[in-house]
Amino acid sequence: MRTVFIGAGPVTTMTAQQLLANDYEVVIIEKDKALIDELSADLGAGFIHGDGSKPAILREADPAATDFLFSLTGNDQNNILASLVGRSLGFKRVVTRIEDPAYEHICIELGLEDIIIPDYTIARYLADMCAGQNPLQLSAVIKGKARVFSFVAREQDEGTVKDLKLPDDCRVMFLYRNDNFIFADEDTSLLKNDEVVIISRLKALPELEARWNLKGKGNQQA
User: Fold this and answer.
1) Same topology for domains 2-122 and 138-221, yes or no?
2) What would the pLDDT profile of 78-135 be if each residue is shown by its tens digit?
3) DSSP state, 20?
4) Nearest Cα to 84, choosing from 190, 173, 217, 222?
C-alpha cells in the first residue's frame, strides 16, 4: 500500500506513523522546508518539498503507483485544487479535507466524493454521545460483505426509489434533503441533490460505482 499526503500537519503525521508501523509506504508533500527537516528526523516517510497543487510536484509522487492521495492542508481551496489535479494525473483514490461545509456540494459536483469535514464529524460524534448513542456502532454492525454506499441524486434520478431499479442486492435505507433526514421505501420520491444512502452486498458495488460515475473517482462507502 502506498499513500501520498499533501500537507504535513498533525493529522498527516499521526496517520503516517500508523501506516508506517504497518509497513505501508508513505510520501508527504510539504511547502515548508524547515518542517520537513524537523519531521524527517523521526518519521520514516519519504518527503517532497513543494506545492502539492502543482502538477509537476504531484507527478514526482508517482500517481500510477499510489493507492491513496490525501489532501490535508489547512486551506480548503488548495485542497480542492490539489485533489482535482491529482485526479487528473491518475491517482487511484483522492481524499479531500475541507473545513467549510459550504464547499461539500461543490466538491461532489466536481466529482470529489471522498470528503473529510473534521469539525462536522466531531460535532456529530459529540452530539451522538450526548444522546447516549454509540458513534462507532454502525462500523461494528456493517460486517462481512455488507457495505454502505451513498450518492447525490442527479436530475435523471428523480422519481421514486422503485424507479431506480437497483440490483437485487441493494436497498435504499434513507436520504438527506436539505439536511433533513428521511426514511425511504419504494414509493419515496427522490429529487435532484438528495443524498441517498444504500445498503449493499460487496459484489454490487462496481455496478453502483459505474452507474453514478464514481469508479476511479472515489465514492462514499463504508
Assistant:
1) no
2) 999 999 999 999 999 999 999 988 888 888 888 888 898 887 777 766 776 676 766 5
3) H
4) 217
Class assignment of domain 138-221? alpha beta
CATH entry, 2-122, from 3.30.70.1050, 3.40.50.620, 3.40.630.30, 3.40.50.720? 3.40.50.720
Query: In one letter, which amino acid is 7?
Result: G
Q: Dump pLDDT digits (tens) for 52-70.
A: 999 999 999 999 999 999 9
What is the number of alpha carbons within 13 Å of residue 222 lying toward its C-beta?
13
Go through 24-49 and write b for each residue having 16 or more CB atoms within 10 A of its CB, e for each that does not.
Answer: bebbbbbbeeebbeebeeebebebbe
2-6 and 68-71 beta bridge pairing: parallel
| Residue 189 neighbours by CB under 8 Å, 6+ apart | 158, 159, 160
159, 190 contact by CB (below 8 A): yes
Q: What is the pLDDT of residues 4-52, one digit of tens each?
A: 999 999 999 999 999 999 899 999 999 999 999 999 989 999 999 999 9
Burial of 133 (0-12, 13-18, 19+ CB in 10 A): exposed
CA atoms within 13 A on the CB side of 183: 1
Domain spans in the chain, listed from the N-terminal domain onward: 2-122, 138-221
Instruction: Classify residue 192 by its DSSP letter.
Output: T
